[in-house]
Amino acid sequence: MPTFLVLQASIFVLPFFPTLGELGLIWILIRIGATHFPRIINNSINRGWGILTIWLIVNSFLAYQPLEAFLGLANFLPFFALFCSLNIVIRHPKQLRTISWLLVIPSLPIVILGLGQLYLNWNSPALIKTILGWELVAQGVPIGRMSSIFIYANFLAIYLAITFILGLGLWLDIWKNFALKNRIWLLLLMSIILLADAVGLGLASSRNAWGIVLLGLIAFVIYLGWYWLLWGVTGMFTAILWASFGSFWGQEWLRKIVPMFIWSRLSDKMYPDRPLETLRITQWEFCWSKIQENPIIGWGLRNYTPLYLEATNFWFGHPHNLFLMLGMEIGIIASLLFCLIVGWILAQAILLLRRSNQNSSKSLSDRDHLMLFSYIVAFACCILFNLLDVTIFDLRINTIGWILLSAIYGVSQQFSHNSRPYSPLYHQGE
Predict the structure, then answer these.
(1) Closest to 171 (Cα-Cα) out of 189, 159, 157, 150
(2) Which position among 14, 253, 258, 328 has the lowest Cβ density within 10 Å, counted as fewest Cβ atoms?
């Protein structure tokens, strides 16, 4: 069976049928691992993941609660291996375009289900959760915020942020390609999806997602050189902040223009009486104190929750910052290694974009340049989102993040070694 075909099917079914999607990715991992093992182990980035794997296993033996730490390995080690396989499968820029469509299209029915959840009190029967692994809860989780088929509104928000950015890249790709068949209909379809994603982002009510999508839009405006539009975005952002914070002249008038659910959510007036233990600053201070107590080894994966429970008598699943959590759980050295590997991958992709702007021999076409840029922005959104939340605990979001990173690295490596991009798996249909 063609490897890239299995990858396409796995990505497409992943949001609605996670188990089937993950099984397809496991098949790819095993097949590519068996047939390309020498190539995998000779790659310096893959060796970096190998070193980090050894560190995490040793760290789990030394953890505060070793059992929790070993369970936490499932959020990392399989994805390190998946990355090593996928960056061999995804090598051609055309594949980026295909994967974008497969990631973006399911977002439309997901938002429709979320609208039914909020306004028609839709909920799914128990059989759906048993078979598919997710449930639709009337009025959302938490109540009043769209969560659709995800377990919490914030996971839906980062999913829609990713699909919105990739969808914007596809919209621009279609808009610029005048020779494309059915161009008008494809533009209409993508416009509907982008509108639906924007509505879903608003109703998920994630301040974090709102901010990163706005930054993503600014990145596209700068990339396209539409600086006149930047003034409009800046003006809109200023008006929203003016309506949300402090007490300034004209604020009451602005609050009649800016929707209440935006300024009240940003100013925290929507949820004014939250326990101290639920505040991000409290969780971050706790993490920092634990990092100082054990900076090298850390306390072990998934050990934030029992330690926080002991200290505050309050259960909380994660500290709303991935990097502070990693520093506390696996130590500073391992956290820096993790960030260094990811940072190097992104740096190589950005250098490829710069070389392409300079019309070097190893350059991307304009369309491929736009696709790679949209992937970089989408993955950057994941990083920024994890500064105020943690997404690795949702299987689908974690998987999508690693797919994006694998695609960025695979295409960057192909252009680093060849003047013409070529993927034997893509062209020969392995």
Answers:
(1) 189
(2) 253
DSSP for residue 245: S
The C-alpha atoms of residue 190 and residue 103 are separated, in whole angstroms, by: 12
For residues 238, 240, 243, 244, the Cα torsion angle rounded to the nearest 10 degrees is: -110
Tokens 């405006």 belong to which residue? 221
The token pair that represents 301 in the structure block: 């994966």
Report residue 260 as tokens.
């209440």
Angle of CA points 142, 166, 9, to nearest 5°: 85
Q: Residue ranges of the domains in the chain? A: 3-205+270-427
Q: How much is the pTM?
A: 0.91
Distance CA 186, CA 17 (A): 26
Residues 151 and 141 sit within 8 Å (Cβ to Cβ): yes
Cα–Cα dist 161/389, whole Å? 14
Q: CA 22 to CA 81: how far, in whole Å?
A: 13
Nearest to 379 by CA among 421, 415, 354, 350: 350
Q: What confidence tens digit (pLDDT) does each residue in 47-70 have?
A: 999 999 999 999 999 999 999 999
Asked if the model's pLDDT at residue 293 lies above 90, the reply is yes
- Tokens coding 215: 């930054």
324, 288 Cβ separation under 8 angstroms: yes
User: How far is residue 37's CA from residue 334's CA, in Å, rounded to a whole number?
Assistant: 25
Query: Does the structure show a pLDDT above 90 at 369?
Result: yes
| Two structure tokens written together for 427 | 């062209």
Dist. CA 102–CA 96, nearest whole Å: 10
Q: Using alpha carbons, select from 344, 337, 360 the residue that is nearest to residue 409.
A: 344
DSSP 150-215: SSSHHHHHHHHHHHHHHHHHHHHHHHH-TT-TTHHHHHHHHHHHHHHHHHHHHHHT-HHHHHHHHH
Neighbouring residues of 380: CB distance < 8 A, sequence distance ≥ 6: 216, 219, 346
Amino acid at 239: A
Torsion of CA 211, 217, 219, 222, to 10 degrees: -140
pLDDT at 79 over 50: yes
